[in-house]
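Ticket #4471: structure export looks truncated?
Reporter: QA, pipeline team
Priority: medium

Steps to reproduce: submit the single chain below to the structure queue and open the exported record.
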Amino acid sequence: MGISGYCHQPAAEGSWVSYKTTNSYKNSTYFTQARLFYINPSNPNATIKYSVNKGETIAETLEQDDHLHELLVKSDAKIKGIDFYCNAPDVYIYGASLEGNDGVYVDNFSVRGVSGPQLKRIRSQMFEEFNEKQNYSLVVLQYGLNVSFPTEAHLQNYIKVMDAAIVHVKKAFPNTPIMLFSVSDRSTNQNGERATHEGLDKMITTQQNMAKKHQLMFWNMYNAMGGKNAMLTYVKNGWANKDYTHLNFKGGKEIAKLFAKVLVQ
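Actual output as written to the record:
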């Protein structure tokens, strides 16, 4: 699997992916280069074709070995869209990075239902080779919301598997600072009223102790949100879903503002 937890293999015929910009955000109306990440372990004739802004289709032969490579596409014109085509089923595709010339880049690898131990399934070589190409300045680990109502047995199992996952990630990123986020607030129905789940404090303390043990930075997102029953305010403001658990895009923006201040300081 790739650093995102996924990899993709083209079907025998007609495989393609298309990336387009959006006018929703001022910094994403165009890009100037794209990098497609791949491993081609066995096919000396494997090619990828691409087309920028629906223009001429260009074919590139892929490098063949067991290491991560990138297909770099640059353009003097503003790129509004790019299409990639690949019919080689023995090539592994790991996604693309669409880039401009400056700014801060965040690679957000979100996998539904994952609580952290799956990180160990990603080879150290994959982490290391992606880091060589992306030069990450900070790694943020944010796991645990799916186990934030734990029994003692669940909590001990979480500690065991996350300990191993953190060791694995630290080994792969020896020179990159790593930060652990606590879980966010999460409310349940208690005697007819919504309130922060009573087991949440124990989960956050566990995460804080884990960060201390492994010498990671720690950010208490629960406290930053406002602490006990903050989720009620987030739902009221339209920043979280009515399951009183998951933030929506508006809530994510509010959290991002809070974290950005901490990061700059």
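Status: closed, not a bug. The export was complete when the record was re-opened. Leaving a note from the reviewer for reference: The chain has two domains: 16-99, 117-264.
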